[in-house]
Amino acid sequence: MGEHSQKEQRVHERFRVKDGVFAVIRKNNDTKLTVGQIIDISKGGMSFKYLANSEPIDGVHKLDIYSSGNGAQLKDITFRVVTDFRIDSPFPFSTVFMRRGGLQFQDLSDDHLNRFSEFIGKFTDIESLN
């Protein structure tokens, strides 16, 4: 079940996101926000990293995607969590820990899909990760 199996499950092309692009996660019925840096994205989902002092994310929620200096790029995207795990720190005595989450987008509107195409052109590296 190596990496080959993982790639076969992906339906959409995945792209590495440029620095300065963030997700703001709103858990349902909660005023707390989780902010994370997006690592890669496709029209089907994304992965991101965030500070582990936030509670792990699970369930179905909404997110907005922002680019520093450019404001909101995509808003009110419904997603479900596929993976969420702690990332080991390269510094042995660090008290700051990160988590990495993998999200699957749900029920994207035609407007979201069109905006994704624009977003991918502006804020990702051209070469696909697939």
How can the largest sheet be summarized?
6 strands, antiparallel, barrel
User: With helices defined by DSSP (H or I, 4 residues minimum), what is the helix count?
Assistant: 2
From N to C, what is the helix and strand string? Answer: HEEEEEEEHE
Query: Largest beta sheet: what is the strand line-up?
Result: 2-3-4-7-6-5
CATH superfamily: predicted glycosyltransferase like domains
Tell me the name of the CATH class.
Mainly Beta
Could you say what the CATH topology is called?
Thrombin, subunit H
The total of beta strands comes to 8
Class by alpha and beta content? alpha+beta
Q: In percent, how much strand structure appears in the residues?
A: over 45%
Uncertain runs are 1-8
> In which range does the helix fraction lie?
10-25%
CATH architecture: Beta Barrel
Q: What is the residue-mean pLDDT, rounded to a whole number?
A: 83
Count of domain modules: 1
Distance between the termini: 17 Å
| Mass-distribution shape | globular
Rg over C-alpha atoms, rounded to the nearest angstrom? 15 Å
